[in-house]
Amino acid sequence: MEVGFLGLGIMGKAMALNLLSNGFRVTVWNRTLSRCEELVEHGATVGETPAAVIQKCKYTVAMLSDPSAALSVVFDEHGVLEQITEGKGYIDMSTVDAETSSKISQAITEKGGHFLEAPVSGSKKPAEDGQLVILAAGEKTLYEEVIQIFDVLGKKSFFLGSVGNGAKLKLVVNMIMGSMMNGFAEGLVLAERSGLSQQTLLDVLDLGAIANPMFRLKGPAMINSSHAPNFPLKHQQKDMRLALALGDEQAVSMPVAAAANESFKKARSLGLGEEDFSAVYEVLKASLFNATA
Ligand SMILES: NC(=O)C1=CN([C@@H]2O[C@H](COP(=O)(O)OP(=O)(O)OC[C@H]3O[C@@H](n4cnc5c(N)ncnc54)[C@H](OP(=O)(O)O)[C@@H]3O)[C@@H](O)[C@H]2O)C=CC1
Ligand SMILES: O=CC(=O)O
Q: What positions constitute the catalytic site (predicted)?
């Protein structure tokens, strides 16, 4: 099967490589075109624009940073809309809000194309290992046609009904994840300031009812202040912002998420947006230090 792939950041690169190593023919495009070179070494072809990729491929996947990138790739000059036609499928796996996804869906379907949103849960390593959890919504027939793609990229796919449901579920999941990360980081700082071993805290957490893969994976690096980006903090803050907007729409009070969002915003303002989202630890560490100084 020939698949187009738009967006070769941390996630997109790993996902496109996975498709190539599983026998798919892949045509890639990235805004910074030089990022396509590594994929070409692995057998990919390059499309000069999103429109060129859509023209060549029956199915095209996108993995872009945020709503503005997702919209730009579809609606701008040489974008997806210029070449989407009857029988072609567009699958946007970026994390965006339901409104963005619906706008894209409407424009694609008006031109006779087919659309799925399919944001993913799981970070760089699950993307490399084909172990993502895929939250698809939109046209069921397209979902059934591209299930071979999802089977390579993920360990489990959910079909969630109409467009917007995948985007919303992804935001709820990441709202919980971002809130947990803040609580975890505060706990690590509090343990250190109280003269306790952070490693012992990690060991105790891992043996109890709140043990989880995120604490296990991120904890050891966090206590060494190492935040090499798997999931960039700027994207986690975007997800908190979009989840809070969903909370506004639904009149759901979310004080914990709102506080977590403030910490991520602070981290961004301190230049930590490109670091892993665990770098929120540095903000909490600094503010606790200031309070006790
Ligand atoms: N990293 C992770 O752990 C996870 C990320 N996600 C979500 O997946 C998406 C991608 O994440 P990730 O790969 O980490 O992000 P990166 O920041 O590594 O990559 C972002 C991609 O979007 C492209 N891009 C940004 N702005 C534009 C624009 N205006 N027009 C066209 N292309 C643009 C970038 O192109 P360029 O190279 O030119 O900058 C790059 O290809 C995000 O929505 C994120 O929230 C979901 C699950 C896990
Ligand atoms: O969106 C991030 C993730 O780890 O999932």
A: 170
Crossing angle of helices 67-75 and 98-110, in 10° steps, is: 10
Asked if residue 124 lies in contact with residue 231, where contact means CB atoms within 8 angstroms, the answer is yes
Which residues does the annotation mark as catalytic? 170
Could you tell me the pLDDT band of residue 19, with boundaries at 50, 70 and 90?
very high
Distance CA 202, CA 219 (A): 7
Domains within the chain, CATH numbers bracketed: 2-161 (3.40.50.720), 168-292 (1.10.1040.10)
Say if ligand 2 is within 6 A of residue 230 CB. Answer: no
What is the residue with the minimal CA distance to atom 30 of ligand 1?
A: 69
pTM for the structure as a whole:
0.97
Separation of CA 215 and ligand 2 centre (Å)? 14
In degrees to the nearest 10, what's the CA dihedral of 63, 66, 71, 74?
-10
Per-residue model confidence as pLDDT tens digits over 259-270: 999 999 999 999
Ligand 1: centre distance to CA 287 (Å): 30
**What is the distance between the terminal CA atoms of the chain, rounded to a whole angstrom?**
61
Is the complex ipTM more than 0.95? yes
291 CB contacts (<8 Å, ≥6 apart)? Answer: none
